[in-house]
Amino acid sequence: MPNDNQQLRKESIKYLKNAPLRENDPKFICAISDVAYEFLTTDEVGLIEQLYFKMKNIALRNKILYGLIRCRHLELKDFFQKAYKKERYLDMRLLAIHGLAQYASEEEIEKVMQHFLKILIKRPETTPYNYQEYEFLRSAFGLPLLIKKYGYPCFEKTLQQVEEQYQNMPEAFRGHLTFDEDGKQVSLRTPMKIKQMIDRFYESRNLR
Q1: Which candidate, 79, 70, 62, 60, places its Cα nearest to that of 21?
Q2: Helix 153-168 vs helix 106-126: angle between axes, to the nearest 10 degrees?
Q3: Can you tell me the distance from the alpha carbon of 119 to that of 178, in angstroms, rounded to the nearest whole number?
Q4: Is the pTM value of this prediction over 0.90?
Q5: What average pLDDT does range 188-197 have in this prediction?
Q6: Taking Cα atoms as reference points, which of 169, 89, 175 lies closest to residue 135?
Q7: C-alpha angle 93-145-154 in degrees, rounded to nearest 5
Q8: For residue 202, how many C-alpha atoms fall within 13 Å in the half-sphere facing its CB?
């Protein structure tokens, strides 16, 4: 008899194969979450990849990236290369790098990280207070985990740049959240406290 994970995978895949792409439909969202990614077959992962590249919903793409990182038994190098190019937020790009690093050589990863670093360095000009990105990059699941697993100097260099830019941000945008080694978000302050700190920051700027 199939175990619960296999049964859940089959039911979710069957639904996603036949259902219309409705990214705000609770049933569709649950199906994406319920896929047992580590048990996917080559054909099934092909369906998931197609859905990923059609989706506009960042949260759903995020779930798929997290899921496909666990598919180490499948050859997904091409997918993660394309996913890196598709994403615009650095936390999403780093998720793609997590997957890509499982298949690519150190030289290939170094080239990707050179591109990543160029984007990172421009962040203070384009989105100076996007603290969610920084917190993911420096978290237990971000660059520190990649350094621990692979030890590539390019990861260490990027983390140093992340820390420099993070420390240069106003205190109002630091220390609100982090991510554990499983990639789950951990809140360090309440939403009300975060809002108060950020509101005070903008109020102080307007008073000058």
Answers
A1: 60
A2: 10
A3: 21
A4: yes
A5: 97
A6: 175
A7: 65
A8: 7
